Structures are given as structure tokens and as C-alpha cells.
Amino acid sequence: MDRRALATVAALALACGSDPDGSASLDASATAATTGAATTTDDSSATTTTTTSTSDATSDSTPTTAATTSDVPPPIDGFAYGYTHHRRDGNRRITQPADLPAAQALDHAFDAASAPVWLVAAPADAGTIWVVVADDGATQSLHLIDATIEPLLLDLPALPAGEPPLLAVSGATFSLVRAYEDDPARTPPAPLGGSARAYRSPAGELVIVDGQAIERARFPRDLLPDGRVVVADAGTIAALAPTTDVYAHGVLGDALEAGGLLFARATPGSVTAEATVPAPAVIEGVAPLWGDIDGDGVDEVVVTVSDADAGARIVAFASDGTLVAEGPAIGSGYRWRHPIAVAPFGPAGEPEIAVVRTPHIGGIAEFYRRSGDTLTIAATATGVSSHRLGSNNLDQAIAGDLDDDGAIELLVPSQAFDRLVALRRVSDAPSVISPWELDLPAPLATNLAAAVDPDGSVVLGAACEDGTLRLWRG
Predict the structure, then answer these.
(1) Chain segment 26-85, per-residue pLDDT in tens
(2) How many Å apart are CA 393 and CA 382, to the nearest integer?
(3) Side-chain half-sphere of 89: how many Cα atoms within 13 Å?
(4) What are the backbone angles phi and psi of residue 291, rounded to the nearest 5°?
(5) Under 8 Å between Cβ of 385 and 375
(6) pLDDT by residue (tens digit) across 264-301?
(7) Rounded to whole angstroms, how far apart are CA atoms 2 and 313?
(8) Of 35, 176, 274, 372, which residue is least crowded by CB atoms under 10 Å?
(9) Cα–Cα distance between 203 and 283 in angstroms, integer?
């Protein structure tokens, strides 16, 4: 059992004083504590993705250390989490309606000694907590209550440079949750409820600990170093593995991509399926994306499959590792597609996959719809982006009913990253319109983050290159 695993960096109170039992509250002074620690030119030529899969755990799926969890009750999760990718399933979608065009824009100037790269937020007992992480790992913590942004007395400890944050808030205390206290990690853990977590070990294993923070399984599968572990609502874990360097595109921060997908269950700790994308193709991304692409009530996994000849195409897999449907390839290598969200984008509420094609060179928003084993492009819009070349931050876009009209919008940066552009699917030509935009004080530097405060108001946030944090409280 790894004694360093699953320690939260700190839990700090929101204001001053301390309770007799040492717990932090809104009336308590900033206090450090540890919580949940474990002892342990585009062409649409079609191509076909061939995969191999194995369903159910086999002898090769047996963890190197595991114990049965059949007698462990389901953990109770008392935390609100803030992910850079919004949800633990990787689907960058807000389900609470917002009215961002009418929202009050609130600005806060933070210390710009280092550039902001990450932003996370989650609701607290009062208002919402926001944490900005700089490129050197330094953190700044803020409390938004009503229309006032207040810096907290103490910031959370710094993260290793480049590590994305995972914010956990419980009542009036908050923390950044890490997989390992004393090793730089390129990805945070995925919460499974209570103290249960799934995460990548430094050796590339998928590790699962239960609600009592006891390690239950460890699978040697060579997970992608900066790959996110994501969890469907049904509890199925998905991760990118094994790591490969056969496709040296390198637009996502390094030349490493994934050769397939791994599916697992936390209870009991088991690998349930694996899917392989045969070389020289790879899965080009940092995380799978869970979403119901056809409205049948069952989530699929959406990824980008790329190779040097045909380039990128969008592919959906079932949780048993079988290929469900795939879209057309770009037609030339070293051109990427960025899957962002699955939601009822269609004019009549049909489920579609929102994607940005070639975000670095004239980005085009694409909306895919499933037709049998094919993902067809139902609509497109030009002039947008979703990703900075060379960054591993793939979370600069978001979807949801963002203007409270009952329809789902995709919110993406402009090509210059100087504003956020709303895109809505309609039945008339053009089939994608931009009904409104949000101005930014400077080019976008971080992912977009969102949280719903206790009164039900959605707050959207973005940190910019000039050191401004802008929040829209709708």
C-alpha cells in the first residue's frame, strides 16, 4: 500500500477564528488541515478505425494488489468538486440554466508575477470558492459572495508546475486534492465518492482506493502521463492507455498519445474492458469524454483518433470496449479535432457532439450526430478556437443553456482568444448562429470554470493574460 497516496494538500477556512474542535468554518480563522488522506485544408474522406476489445475482467486484468470490496458500503460524498473539465465524466457541460448575456461582469486583479493557466470553482456554504493556478504552480484563492470578490487570507499550497487542480469544498472548508503529496503528478485523481478515488500512479498504473481510503486495486496498464481518469454517472472508469510515441504531432504539450482505452469498475476493483487503436493510429487527447450520443440513456466514450495519413476523426466507444460509431477523417495528417461536449445541441433537442476542428489554424466548430455506425457532421461554424498550441489545457470551452432560453449553446473562444462566442444550432440556414458574445479584458489564459452558488445562480469564470479574473454571475 502506498503511504503517499491520496493526500489533500490543505483545507483552509474562508475567513477568521477557529472552532473549539479544530474544524474550519466561515467564522473561523484560516487554518491548515489534511482531509481524506490515504495511508496508502480539410477533406472529409472516410476511414475505418479497427479496434480489439476484451469485455469483463480476465486473468490479465487481475490487479497486482487488490482486495474484495463487496462488503464495503457505498461511500457518501460530502464534497462539491471543481474540475477544470467541469464534471468528473469529462463532458464540459453545465446542466443548470444561466443567463450570461444579462450577467453582471465582476473583475479581480490578481498577482500577475506568473501567468495564470488553470481555474477551478465550487459552491460553498455561502457563495463560491475560486482558485487560480499559475504556470509555476502558485495558487490564489478567492471567495465570491453576492457581487463581491474577496481574496482569502491564505492561499492553498503551490502545486507542481503544470499539474491541473482538483478543488474540493465541504461546507466552509476547501482543499486541492492530489494523487500524491510528494511526487509531481501531471493529472489529479477522479473522485468516486467519499474518500474513494481512482488515479494514475507515477509508474502509470491505474490505482483505485475505496471509501475508507484503502487501496483496493492496482492495474499495470501504462496510462498516459497527463491523461485524466474520468467516471461515468453509472460508475464506469475510463482512462487512456497504453502510452505510445508513434504519432509525433505534439500539439497537446508532448509527443505522447494513447494506444487505446481502459475501462474499469471500482467495486469490485476490476478492469472490465480494453479497446486498442492499432498503430500507427493513436487516441490524441488527454481524456475520454462520457456522453449519451444517441439519446438511449446509455453513455458512450468519445475520443479523437489520429494518424499521419488521414488525420483526426471523432470515434465513439461503448463501455464494453466495442466501437459504436465514427466520423470522417480530416484527410491529412497532423490536423487535430477537439471534442468538447455531448448535449442536446440539435434544433429539436437531438443529442450531438460538439467539436472544434483545427483550433490552431482557422478553427471550425462541428456538430456531429449518430446515424447507425457513422457520426455525420450536421452543422459547422467558422472563426473559433478551443485550444492553445502546445498546451495540455483542453478545457477552454463549455456548453449549456447559457442564456436561459431552453436551447443549448456552445461557448468557445474566438480565434484571437479576446472574447467568448456563443454558438447555437437552429433549423434555418445558417444552421449555426452566434446570438451573443462575452468580452474579455485581455486574451484568455486559463480554462473556463463554472459553479452554481447556493441561491442557484450560475457563475462563469475566466482568467486572462493581463492578470484579470473575470466572473459573470448570471
Answers:
(1) 332 232 222 333 323 333 333 333 444 444 433 333 333 333 222 333 333 678 999 999
(2) 22
(3) 20
(4) -175, 150
(5) no
(6) 999 888 999 999 999 899 999 999 999 999 999 999 99
(7) 39
(8) 372
(9) 20
Q: How many residues does the chain have?
A: 474
Q: What does R_g of the chain's alpha carbons equal in angstroms?
A: 21
pLDDT in tens, 122-147: 999 999 999 999 999 999 999 999 99
Which H or E element spans position 120? strand 116-123
Place of cell 470553482: 121
Average pLDDT for 198-222: 93
CB 264 within 8 A of CB 270: yes
Chain segment 379-424, per-residue pLDDT in tens: 999 999 999 999 999 999 999 999 999 999 999 999 999 999 999 9
Separation between Cα atoms, residue 469 and residue 474, nearest integer Å: 16
Could you tell me which of 387, 380, 381, 379 has the C-alpha nearest to residue 358? Answer: 387
- Closest C-alpha to 126, from 470, 457, 448: 457
Extract the C-alpha cell encoding 441: 479584458
**Mean of pLDDT over the chain:** 85
- Among residues 419, 413, 423, 361, which one has the least CA distance to residue 386? 413
Long-range Cβ pairs for the range 130-134 (8 Å, 24+):
130/449, 130/451, 130/461, 130/469, 130/471, 131/82, 131/156, 131/165, 131/167, 131/174, 131/176, 132/446, 132/463, 132/469, 133/159, 133/164, 133/165
Contacts for 163 with CB less than 8 Å, ≥ 6 apart: 137, 178, 184, 185, 186, 187, 188
Query: In one letter, which amino acid is 194?
Result: G
Cα–Cα distance for residue pair 315/328, rounded to 1 Å: 9
* CATH code given to domain 12-40+53-473: 2.130.10.10
Render pLDDT for 192-209 as a digit per residue (tens, 0 to 9).
987 899 999 999 999 999
* pTM attached to this predicted model: 0.86
3-state secondary structure of 108: strand
Percent of the chain with pLDDT over 90: 74
Instruction: Say if CB 118 and CB 84 are below 8 A apart.
Output: yes
